Amino acid sequence: MSNTPPNCAILGFGYLGRPLAQKLYERGAEVAAVKRSLSSDDINLPIRLDTADLNHPDVFQEAFWQQYWADKTTWFCLLPPSALKDYCGSLRQWVALAEQFGVQHIVFCSSTGVYGERVRECDEHTPPEPQTDNARHILAVETLLWESRIPNIDILRLGGLYSAERHPVSRLLLQKNISGGKRPVNVVHQDRAVDALLQTAFDPQGRKLRNIVEPDHPGRAEFYAAEAAKLGLPPPDFNPEDISGGKIVRSIFQDRQA
């Protein structure tokens, strides 16, 4: 792994993109990023931050791509399918732009959701079984990247993201008699996900697929009760009679375990 920071460009300057940009900058990288609109938190950031409507048909002809992205050797895509009207179509144009500029490394934030919900243990060799539109869109972009001319591709399939500031337990507390309390969780803390993205930026070595999940897989009821206690909240109301199981996602790459 190189100690020299690559100059990076980030598509998706939010929950993962902002802390990733900060860490890259602290290590001496030049960073450019794009988001939909600016907020007060964006003032005087030490990176090049542009705004764009990524759903506009001509967005990838904007001058800032040539001016501020063409010289960045590593590009990140951290956008979920919900961020774009035509996820695959928009990212196909984005990848074509990367090919045009001679980008050497793309890091794509994928999801363990591509494995579906069937009860089984999954690792990087397990065939995907996407069951939702979002999972199918993500898998289609993975295929697009594998077929691209970019020499170094890293696809990180992240587990469910959480942190104290944005925790799914808050939504669960609004529900009653929740199903699936025994199903194992496949999660990764925001900090660990950002660290995995950062490590990957420094290590372009061909084409790699990684699952980024925490090694422990307690049941949802157990996990979220413990997380709620950390936040001073009551445990979510899971149905104790539902004993249905779910998948467990692991990684065969010990060096990148979350």
From TrEMBL:
GO molecular function: aldehyde dehydrogenase (NAD+) activity
SUPFAM superfamilies according to UniProt: NAD(P)-binding Rossmann-fold domains (SSF51735)
InterPro entries (UniProt xref): NAD(P)-bd_dom_sf (IPR036291), NAD(P)-dependent_oxidoreduct (IPR051783)
Domain of life: Bacteria
GO CC entries: cytoplasm
Name this polypeptide is given: SDR family NAD(P)-dependent oxidoreductase
Gene source species: Neisseria animalis
